[in-house]
UniProtKB/TrEMBL annotation:
Top-level taxon of origin: Bacteria
Molecular-function GO term, any one: flavin adenine dinucleotide binding
Protein name: D-amino acid oxidase
Alphabetical GO biological process terms: thiamine biosynthetic process
Originating species: Marinobacterium nitratireducens
Pathway entry: Cofactor biosynthesis; thiamine diphosphate biosynthesis
GO CC field: cytoplasm
The keyword Oxidoreductase belongs to this UniProt entry's keyword annotation: yes
Keywords of the record: Oxidoreductase, Thiamine biosynthesis
FAD dependent oxidoreductase domain: residues covered: 3-344
A Pfam family recorded for this sequence: DAO
Matching InterPro entries: FAD-dep_OxRdtase (IPR006076), FAD/NAD-bd_sf (IPR036188), Gly_oxidase_ThiO (IPR012727)
Amino acid sequence: MSDFLVVGGGVIGMLTARELAQSGASVTLVERGLCARESTWAGGGIVSPLYPWRYKEPVTQLATWSQSSYIHLSQDLFEETGIDPELRQKGMFMVSVDDEAEALEWAARFRRPMLQVDAEFLYRKEPHLRPGHERSLWMPEVASIRNPRLGQALRRSLELNPRIELIEQAGSAELLLDGEQVVGVRTDKGEFRAGQTVLAAGAWTGELLAPLGLELPVEPVKGQMMLFKAPVGLVNRVVLLGGRYLIPRNDGRVLVGSTLERVGFDKQATEDARDSLYRTAIDILPQLADYPVEHHWAGLRPGSPEGIPFIGAVPGYRGLHVNAGQYRNGLVLAPASTRLMADLLLDRTPIIDPEPYRLSGRLALN
């Protein structure tokens, strides 16, 4: 029996297991499919909330801590595993923003680097953008990470750690109870028990809690993305326009995303979304029309009220905890979310105030 059982093998689950194991604990991670193949793989990898001033302060607190930690995390994972997560510290342009005053006030309040720049600055940095933009907001410290590579590196890190047992393709999971104590899960691959159980199953976390009569307000929100096979240098920085974005990779490929669709657990990619994403990409960067679309896919985000995740103990049940509901900011908030979860589990001083993320008062009975 392990000290901790983590249910869910996305970036949140894997980082939680890694953080706990680095403290000296034994950890079992159980994933119903393959690690890092759901929203961790499907997202874009911008290490900042989109339009960060439009989020509540609890999201900003987690994002700020996480952004500074990604430099060390990516370096550590590369050294451990030989897999480069490809952290790009190139900055982000936010073009044609209506609420610039609010953005600049937020940046001053939280001391986040943000500048209002003119067209000359914008086109000097990104000359291939569609002409006609008069100004932009510029966040020079925003990074992006190649999330499939991050997932591969994290999975390999867990494999190499003797304190971690990794169970993939476990199928469905059901919580095991001893009275009001959660003692583990029953899966298609058998039972796994631990002193403490952490649910980090993304959009599926609420389904695990439902048999306990608890309703966690985390719902699947589909996002569709597209990938262009373009040459290196066509675009070098994240560009955000009208709620959608382009993200360049080291090899020149360019991602465009994303849709927001509340259609349950449907992960089907659609032609309507493909057409819409293609138009978005060409509108931001016309020369993308000269290059092929390599891939189009969909994933499910764990949507939560106002994007504030649930991190902490589940009321009414001993030994049960949740780390889920990061919504569009799973990769953005992952290092801070998992460090806070580990602090609570290990009775350490929390890195930030845990109160806004607690489940007490935010759960409903069903």
